[in-house]
Amino acid sequence: MGDIKKWPIFNLVPPKFLSSIRVAFVYGVDVCNTLIVTYTNQVYQIQYNTHQKHLEINDYHNAFSPKIIQSLCELDIKTFAFFEGLNILILTNGGMVYSMPKGFFNENQFIAEGSKPNIINESFDNEIVEDIACGKHQFLVLTSSGKVYYSDSIYNGDSRARINVNKRITFISCGHFFNVIVTEDGKVYSWGNNDHGQLGISNFSKTKEEPSKVKGLDGVIISKVACGYTHVLALSNEGDVYVWGANTYGQLGLCTNGSMHTPKKLDTQNIKEVVDIATSCHHHISFAMDTNNRVFMWGQCLGRNLIVPTLTSVSSIHDAFAFYASPKVMHKPLIFYNNNKNSTLDSLKCLFNDPTTSDLIIQVHGNPIHVHKSILMIRCQYFRTRFQEDCVTKDQSVIEENMFPHNLFKAFLQYLYTDKIDLSPEDTFELLILAHHYSVNQLKIYCVQYICNRITVKNAIVLYNMAIAYNFKKLEDSCFKFILRNMTASVLQTPSFDELDGSGFKNCVIQAAEAGFYFRERKKTETHFPSCKCARPADSLHPNHV
């Protein structure tokens, strides 16, 4: 976490106000602009006041004053991103994306009073969005189901299209006029402008309209990428950094100024294992943090060109941007956690997948998730037993868990830290199986309740069969009661009814008989299952096949 006072603009507002800030974002290449979200979800921008009568929060000695943006309050904002110029994207904790285009700003480059953000989730098939990224004029959104949508708002008439790489996508980043994504299996794809080799595809072609695999990283599992103005940093699951693209300012850290059109491993022999990297589409500077919280930088710094990684005096990448980067804008918002009675829970949320404090990496199909043994032991009996009784595991810093997909296992671990589920609805039954396997009863209750609220005529029989197969009694009862209530709604006429296995059909008949229902006829139909994932045959949802 960085220090907000390292950013000069925040030293010009009343100190008392700083303690109320939950999210702070400094943006604007030409003029220093800010957006602030408080713990009470009030949203402000810092305006320059030429008349004392315009000052707020009872500070009449300060020319810089927070001005509330009423239309953004109560959105429960998670993060911001901005295009060069004045275009803001807003992502809420509920997965909604809002846009505030250039027309929403006044002549002083502040958000105009009365401007209301536009919700744009319809452009992404109304999916829940997990992350956003912006370039010069383009942006990407990453959904909770691992899909990515792309928009080039200037050159393609504000077109928005889904990116198809036939794999779940876990990370996104935008350069000035190019984009890079990382898939669940650690592969990297890129598209856009390539005049400096920033796509990493072994040539300096002008543009690529469709994503191309960065083949120079074959055999390497990448967990994160960071796009600069025209260069790229990539962090592997082993703590290695790979670089490519423009190098005029030494931003690749290769002791030269020549551009690279293929990934090259950065010499980090003087750096401990790298746990984080950063740059942005507005910068020609690069940063890396190692396991000792040491921050190194290279590239354009204070008017000089550093061609090798150089140790800084700060211990936060946010602080490094404040001190050394030009322009003085954040690569991502600075997020704080409340110091009141909820601080323990907020701190716990902050720790999830935090490489700077983690003492254990769980590799799921080659993808690292940074966790803490003590938290897993407190929250999950499976891990408590494993770490206490298995002497080998107890001393390991990396373990593998490959029974379930990466997105599913990550959602499970995140639940242990937050008590919240960050997963698409269609994955809930698989999550229920995972919770059953790891004996996390509270999560099982949550999943069962969620599924029970979404039983339909089409999926009732299949869910009923699954519930029997996995001995989920409450779900079985809920499905049966739904079936009984909807016998006249053609439940018995659905294709899935004929596909009940013997024990499932027998169980259903017995319960129906006890309830006084008489089966007159079973309609024979073709084999068919509803398209939703939670309505597949029980065998296909066995943990070994998830």
Provide a descriptive summary of the structure in words.
The protein has 546 residues and is an alpha+beta fold. 21% of the residues lie in helices and 28% in strands. It has a five-stranded antiparallel beta sheet with strand order 4-3-2-1-25, with no helix packed on it. Strands 5-6-7-8 form a four-stranded antiparallel beta sheet, with no helix packed on it. Strand 14 and strand 15 (188-193) form a beta hairpin. The longest helix has 13 residues, at 406-418. It is globular and about 70 Å long. The model is unreliable at 51-61 and 515-546 (pLDDT under 50).
- Outline the biggest β-sheet: 5 strands, antiparallel
What separation lies between the terminal Cα atoms? 37 Å
Mean pLDDT: 82
Tell how many strands the DSSP assignment holds.
Answer: 28
Strand content is 25-35%
Structural class of the secondary elements?
Answer: alpha+beta
Shape: globular
The strand order across the widest sheet is 4-3-2-1-25
Q: Point out poorly predicted stretches.
A: 51-61, 515-546
Query: In angstroms, what is the radius of gyration?
Result: 26 Å
Q: What is the number of helices? A: 12
| Helical fraction | 10-25%
